[in-house]
Design brief:
Its main location: membrane. It holds the Pfam family TauE. With 245 residues, the chain is mainly alpha-helical. Helix content is 77%, strand content 0%. The chain contains 10 helices and no strands. The longest helix has 26 residues.
Length: 245
C-alpha cells in the first residue's frame, strides 16, 4: 500500500513540476522524506535521478509544441552546469542558515514580482543576457544549498521578458545536466530498490510529460506565472517550517 502511495504521489508531483518546466526534486525530497529516513543515501540520489528524468520529459513535452528556444536553453545549460559545482565547493565554508536566508529573500522577491506585469528590455525583446548573468549566482547558490537551479531560474527568465511557457521550456533544458552531474558522486553510496525505483521513474516521466503538454495546450501564460508564484511561496514556507522545527 505504501509503495502505491509513493508512486501515485510522485506521479502527481511530477505532473505539477512538468507544468512549470521544473525537475521534481523540490517536491520529491520532502515527500520521500515521509517514507525514508536516509537523506544522503536514499532520498537525495533518488530525487536527483527523478529530477533529471522529469525535467527531460517536461522538455520533450514543451519541445513538441515548439516552445523551446534551443540556443538560449543550451547556453543556460552550460552556465548552470559550470557554476553549480562552485557552490558545492563553497558549501563547506558557509553556514547553511545564512544561505537559506538569502534563498528565502530571493524567492520572496521573485514571487512578488511574478504577480506584477512583466516588462522586457527597452526594445521589447527579452533581456536574455541579463538572464545569463543571473544564472551564475543562481547556480552557485543552488550548489551551496544542494537544490536545483530551476526554482530560481524559471521566474528570472519570466522577469527578463520571456513568455512564461517559453521560460518553462528553456528552464527544463537548463536543469537537466546539473541534476545528473550532481547525481554522479552520489551513485556509489546510493541505496534504492529497483522494484520501487523503476515504477517511480516511469510515473515521474509520464507525469512530467503530461504536465508540460497541459501547460503547452491549455494554460494561459499569465496563469502559469501566477501558479508558479503560489508554488514557490508554498515551498518556501514549508522550508522555513522545517528549518525552525
Amino acid at each position: 500500500m505504501s509503495q502505491f502511495v509513493i508512486i501515485l504521489g510522485i506521479l502527481l508531483l511530477s505532473f505539477v513540476s512538468g507544468m512549470l518546466g521544473l525537475g521534481v526534486a523540490f517536491a520529491a525530497i520532502p515527500f520521500l522524506g515521509l517514507f525514508f529516513n536516509d537523506l544522503v543515501h536514499q532520498i537525495q540520489p533518488l530525487s536527483l535521478l527523478l529530477n533529471g528524468l522529469t525535467a527531460s520529459f517536461a522538455a520533450a513535452g514543451f519541445a513538441r509544441s515548439k516552445l523551446i528556444d534551443w540556443p538560449k536553453a543550451l547556453t543556460l545549460s552550460l552556465i548552470t552546469t559550470a557554476s553549480a559545482p562552485i557552490g558545492g565547493y563553497l558549501a563547506r565554508f558557509i553556514p547553511q542558515f545564512y544561505l537559506w536566508a538569502i534563498y528565502v529573500g530571493a524567492v520572496s522577491f521573485l514571487a512578488y514580482r511574478l504577480f506584477r506585469p512583466v516588462q522586457g528590455s527597452s526594445s521589447g525583446a527579452p533581456n536574455i543576457r541579463l538572464a545569463y548573468a543571473l544564472a551564475i549566482p543562481i547556480s552557485i547558490l543552488s550548489g551551496l544549498l544542494g537544490v536545483g537551479p530551476g526554482f530560481l531560474l524559471m521566474p528570472t527568465l519570466i522577469l527578463v521578458g520571456l513568455d512564461s511557457k517559453q521560460a518553462a521550456g528553456v528552464n527544463a533544458i537548463a536543469v537537466i545536466p546539473p541534476s545528473f552531474s550532481a547525481l554522479i558522486p552520489r551513485l556509489n553510496g546510493a541505496q534504492w530498490s529497483p522494484e520501487l525505483a523503476i515504477p517511480l521513474l516511469i510515473a515521474g516521466g509520464v507525469g512530467a510529460f503530461l504536465g508540460a503538454r497541459v501547460t503547452s495546450l491549455y494554460v494561459p501564460s499569465h496563469r502559469l506565472r501566477q501558479i508558479f508564484a503560489v508554488m514557490i511561496v508554498l515551498v518556501t514556507l514549508y522550508k522555513l517550517y522545517t528549518l525552525m522545527a
